[in-house]
Amino acid sequence: MFYKDNWFAWTFDDGPEYGPKLTPTSEFKVILKKTISRPIKSYYEELLENGRIIRDTFSGELDLLFSGGIDSEVILRVYLDLKIPINVYIFKYENNYNVLEYTQAVKTCEALGVKPRIIDFNLQKFFENEAYEYFKTTYSCGPGWIPHMKMTEYCDGTPIIGSGETYARRTSRDLTKKQPWVIELDEKCHHWSIFHKTVNRPAITDWYEYSPEVTAAYLKLPYVQQLMNDDVGGKLTNISSKAVIHQAYWPDLVDRKKLIGFEGPEPSKEKPDITPFMIDFGLKHIFYSVKEKVYTYTAEELLSQIGA
Questions:
Q1: Per-residue model confidence as pLDDT tens digits over 103-155
Q2: Quick one: CA torsion of 75, 77, 81, 83, rounded to 10 degrees?
Q3: Backbone phi, then psi, for 189, in 5-degree steps?
Q4: Hey, what domains does the chain have and what are their CATH numbers?
Q5: pLDDT mean across residues, the chain
Q6: What is the sign of the dihedral through the CA atoms of 43, 46, 51 and 52?
Q7: Is 206 exposed, middle or buried (0-12, 13-18, 19+ CB in 10 A)?
Q8: What is the tens place of the pLDDT at every residue in 156-165?
Q9: How far apart are alpha carbons 30 and 15 in whole angstroms?
């Protein structure tokens, strides 16, 4: 069970629920189910409840792929608050491809008193020799999603990745007047789950989406409601609000720029966020052939569909 009570599911081309993506142009379709049957607790309480449910549902050890970003740090802090053991894996690419992300991950572990497992991962070798076989399993919309499919194989327990936090965006960049906001459910953000479902490997790759109550509690946060009512000036998405939201529970959480993980030591606006060999891989297999589907909902529509 990749999602509590299977509240979230997908099909491709009206095939079986949680079925594989068989072609690059297969259409991703979202299925939302009303499974919430109790009052929603506070966001912090729902984060803790999510951590407990996952621990009780999956046997063996829990293994967190730790990027050092805010999403994965929040997951780690949840398990530390719960005093539930979790192994932390940090992957280090050759040639400093992820040196900024790696350095932040190590620094965060030191601050939290956690000893991580450091894994050297040759990114270029992976794309030259293995990536295509993983790509064919999901026909992912971008090369950056593929290495993590391989990384979970380094885990002996149940892998956890911090993808899946509710993503909200403004429908217009015009800041001169109020504009509607929508929630996105994007195919590309579920490639890791699609991969693990297809290969039948238990994993939690959308940790924030595992329980629908987490999404409901997040959308009910006063700050998030202000954000989506356009009452927080200058915001186009909720991405830059991650720190301020979670600092309410962990004041020492450090705000920082969201990283992709392939920027190298000196990212800039002039160069892409992925390596040249990843661009070559994308040009050869992905960019001109793979179709991606994105579904949008208002907050009210999404809450209604999941029963909150």
A1: 999 999 999 999 999 999 999 999 999 999 999 999 999 999 999 999 999 99
A2: 70
A3: -75, -5
A4: 4-306 (3.40.50)
A5: 94
A6: positive
A7: buried
A8: 999 999 886 7
A9: 12
